[in-house]
Every structure is written in structure tokens, then in C-alpha cells.
TrEMBL record:
<dbReference type="GO" id="GO:0006107">
    <property type="term" value="P:oxaloacetate metabolic process"/>
</dbReference>
<dbReference type="Pfam" id="PF01557">
    <property type="entry name" value="FAA_hydrolase"/>
</dbReference>
<dbReference type="InterPro" id="IPR011234">
    <property type="entry name" value="Fumarylacetoacetase-like_C"/>
</dbReference>
<dbReference type="InterPro" id="IPR036663">
    <property type="entry name" value="Fumarylacetoacetase_C_sf"/>
</dbReference>
<comment type="similarity">
    <text>Belongs to the FAH family.</text>
</comment>
<keyword id="KW-0479">Metal-binding</keyword>
<protein>
    <submittedName>
        <fullName>Fumarylacetoacetate hydrolase domain containing 2A</fullName>
    </submittedName>
</protein>
<feature type="domain" description="Fumarylacetoacetase-like C-terminal">
    <location>
        <begin position="114"/>
        <end position="321"/>
    </location>
</feature>
<dbReference type="GO" id="GO:0046872">
    <property type="term" value="F:metal ion binding"/>
</dbReference>
<dbReference type="InterPro" id="IPR051121">
    <property type="entry name" value="FAH"/>
</dbReference>
<dbReference type="GO" id="GO:0050163">
    <property type="term" value="F:oxaloacetate tautomerase activity"/>
</dbReference>
């Protein structure tokens, strides 16, 4: 089941105007855009990259505008400023526009080299568990095969009876780097998006030696989207409303100002250990309200609909099957 995109009036994009932008904050070309990956309906499995004319609006097909442009977001990011500047020109042209009804929206990034995740990274989530505030980022990962689209189904695995939700702010790396200084780190970020770090708590907390990987990386356990919102489109990624709803009921409701290790700190920390490349995805942690810590615990079941919302970025809606 794929659900249509909905417009959420409570979350409106706000772009700072008339203010100087700190060059260290800017990502790549400094372009304010909402980049998407999509398929044209009726044209098979080929992936296209586009630029939204506005949240939930029609999409400019980048490759139709310029046939030399690549077909995937990762390849576009690998072009650096050249790719994003072409996307800006395409958006400004008003040409090669595809109606929203004629496309299937995909995850904004598919096939990244890395999906880096951060545990216990919201102060209010730590308080929920009576857990101490971490002194350094708690890093784990998902396999890229867990990624699914913003309106695709979450597949409930028969191996788990305790599948849970986690709305998260995600960001995507835009250029290659190692040993990145924190003061330079935001210039390596292409943009932000919405994620659901779906988690099988029995495998995460009770089985497999309590290693988190298997419980986090079942197929479809990383819905992502709806767009890659470039850094200059977001006024402050660490002051955004963040919510999760299950069957229309709000289960998580917080703000990204609760994040302990913010974007720049995470880029600097992880790049000490591994080389970051364009397309790498970071999930930055979840606020309180997950099912596992409710009394009694609540877990997802077939037929549930999970909606994750972040101010200025949009919403992803996934049915559990």
C-alpha cells in the first residue's frame, strides 16, 4: 500500500531572508531546494532525481531538463556544486515539470554506503529511561537495505513480536571527508530529511547478545523522506518540532533542541573513524514516547499507520503489513 502525500498546515517552510548566512553553515552551493528521487508511473523501475516546486507540489525532472545529469541522488551529490547548481537552474526554469499524481516518490537517497545511527541522543528520551546523558555519541548502524520510501509499507517480520517506532531527524552527507573539524562540519552536509528508525525491541534488547544491529535492520526498517531539504532551506535544524503519530494518535512530540550531539558534532566524531562520502545517511536519535517504555509497552501490529513529521521537512506515512 502506498499512501498519497498530504499537506500539513502545521508545518510550514520558513526561509530566513535578508540575513547573512555563515559560510560554515552552508552546504555545498548554498541552494535552498527540496530534492527528491522518484519514478514516473508506467515507466518501469528507472529512478529519476527531481526538485519539488514546493512541499507536496509538482516536481521538475532534472534529467529531462539536462540529459547530462545523473539519475540518482547519490550521483548528483557526487557532482558537488555542479549538480546542485544545475538543479537550481532547472527549478528556476519552470520546465520539465511532472505532476505529482504521475510519480511514485522514493526515498531521497537509495543505496548509500553507510546508514549511521545515534542512540540515546535526546535529553528527554534519556530522562524517559532514567538513563544518564551520554558523554560521547553512541553509534550503531543499519544496513542500507533497510531503507524504504516515504509512503511504502513497513513489513512486520515474523521473527519479532516487539516492533516499535522512532521518529528521527536525518541528514545526508554531501561531500567526501575524513577527520573533519566540527567548525567545518556543516559544509559537508547536503541536507535534512525525516526518518523512522523502526526497531525490533526483542532483538535489540534481549537477543543476539543485546547487539543492536539485527533489531534495527530488518527490511523496510528505515522509511526515509519525503525530500532531501538542503541546509539553506532549514532555518535551524536543531529547533524543529518533531512528532510521531500511530493511527492518528500522537505518541512522540518534542523538539530537535533536545538533541545532545548535534549535526556538526556527529560529523566530526564519526569522521574520526571512517571516511564520509556523498549519500551517507545519519539518523540522529529519537525523542521520548516510543512503545517499549510505555506502561504497558505497546508495539506495532498489522494495519497500523505510522506518520513521522518534522517541521519544515515534511511527513512520511507508512502502513504496517
Amino acid at each position: 500500500m502506498r499512501l498519497p502525500l498530504r499537506s500539513f498546515c502545521i508545518f510550514r517552510s520558513v526561509i530566513a531572508r535578508g540575513q547573512a548566512v555563515d559560510v560554515q553553515r552552508r552546504g555545498l552551493s548554498g541552494a535552498a531546494m527540496r530534492l527528491v528521487q522518484f519514478r514516473r508511473r508506467g515507466e518501469g523501475a528507472s529512478i529519476r532525481v527531481g526538485v519539488e516546486q514546493g512541499e507536496g507540489h509538482s516536481v521538475v525532472d532534472l534529467k529531462a531538463f539536462d540529459p547530462s545529469m545523473p539519475s540518482t541522488m547519490r550521483e548528483l551529490l557526487e557532482l558537488g556544486d555542479k549538480g546542485l547548481e544545475c538543479a537550481q537552474r532547472a527549478l528556476a526554469s519552470g520546465k520539465c515539470v511532472v505532476d505529482r499524481a504521475d510519480i511514485q516518490l522514493l526515498s531521497p537517497v537509495t543505496g548509500p554506503e553507510k546508514v549511521v545511527c545515534v542512540g540515546m541522543n535526546y535529553r528527554d528520551h534519556c530522562l524517559e529511561q532514567n538513563a544518564p546523558i551520554p558523554k560521547e555519541p553512541i553509534i550503531f548502524n543499519k544496513f542500507p537495505s533497510a531503507i524504504t520510501g516515504p509512503y511504502d509499507d513497513i513489513i512486520l517480520p515474523s521473527e519479532s513480536q516487539e516492533v516499535d517506532w522512532e521518529v528521527e531527524l536525518a541528514f545526508v552527507i554531501g561531500r567526501r571527508g575524513k577527520h573533519i573539524k566540527e567548525e567545518d562540519a556543516l559544509s559537508y552536509v547536503a541536507g535534512f530529511t525525516v526518518a523512522n528508525d523502526v526497531s525490533a525491541r526483542d532483538w535489540q534488547m534481549k537477543r543476539n547478545g543485546k547487539q543492536w544491529l539485527l533489531g534495527k535492520t530488518f527490511d523496510s526498517f528505515c522509511p526515509l523522506g519525503p525530500a532531501l531539504v538542503t541546509t539553506d532551506t532549514v532555518t535551524d535544524p536543531h529547533n524543529l518540532s518533531i512528532r510521531c503519530l500511530v493511527n492518528g494518535d500522537t505518541v512522540q512530540n518534542s523538539n530537535t533542541d533536545q538533541i545532545i550531539f548535534k549535526t556538526a558534532a556527529l560529523v566530526a566524531w564519526v569522521s574520526k573513524f571512517v571516511t564520509l562520502i556523498p549519500g551517507d545517511v545519519f539518523l540522529t536519535g529519537t525523542p521520548p514516547g516510543v512503545g517499549a517504555f510505555r506502561k504497558p509497552p505497546i508495539f506495532l501490529k498489522k494495519g497500523d499507520v505510522v506518520e513521522c513529521q518534522i517541521e519544515q521537512l515534511g511527513s512520511i506515512i507508512n502502513k504496517v503489513v
